[in-house]
Amino acid sequence: MSRSARLTAIALGSDALVGTAALPATDAHTLPAHHRSPVVIGAVQADSPGRDDGSNRSLNAEWVTVKNTGLRPVNLKGWTLTSRSTHQTYHFKNLRLAGHQSVRVHTGHGRDTIHDVYQDRHRYVWHNQRDTATLRNDHRRIIDTKHWGRR
């Protein structure tokens, strides 16, 4: 191959690369991503310690932590936390989660505070061996999910 033919091939190849790099990403490779938020699902205690006797004490020993990993406060009003296995959804009321603060969402009855909120349920929400917790914001966008057990 002559020197001019090689230079032409290199030039054509580099034009093709530049053209490819300038193309926008296609939807075929773009999956719906979780909405970026400093709020995440933290620790989960899906299996309350001891015997599952259905008492309020046992129900409240089942909980999911929601934490704000950011510096700025976030109002969780209108946000939801859902169990995939039982399809039960907790709707957050007007709760301001300060930066680096967390709140435990208990299953049973209790008095809501800035550190603990209660779903006021009479039955367990989280499956002990396998479940998925899904946190959505007030626009119904998935913010975070947490799985335990086999999927």
Describe the structure.
It is a single chain. By secondary structure, the protein is of the alpha+beta class. It contains two helices and ten strands, in the order αβαβββββββββ. About 18% of the residues have low confidence.
Q: Which SSEs are present, and which pair or pack?
A:
Layout: H1 3-22, E1 39-45, H2 56-60, E2 63-68, E3 74-75, E4 80-83, E5 89-91, E6 96-97, E7 102-106, E8 116-118, E9 131-136, E10 142-148
Parallel strand pairs: 7-8
Antiparallel strand pairs: 1-2, 2-7, 3-6, 4-5, 4-9, 9-10
Low-confidence runs? 6-32
> So what's the overall shape?
globular
The major sheet is characterized as:
4 strands, mixed
Give helix and strand order, one letter per element, not per position.
HEHEEEEEEEEE
Approximate strand percentage: 25-35%
In angstroms, what is the radius of gyration?
24 Å
Average pLDDT, to the nearest integer?
85
Q: Order of strands across the biggest sheet?
A: 1-2-7-8
Number of helices: 2
Class from helix and strand fractions: alpha+beta
How many strand segments?
10
Q: What is the helix content?
A: 10-25%
**CA-to-CA gap between the ends?**
57 Å
Which features does this protein show?
151 residues; four-stranded antiparallel β-sheet; 2 helices; alpha+beta
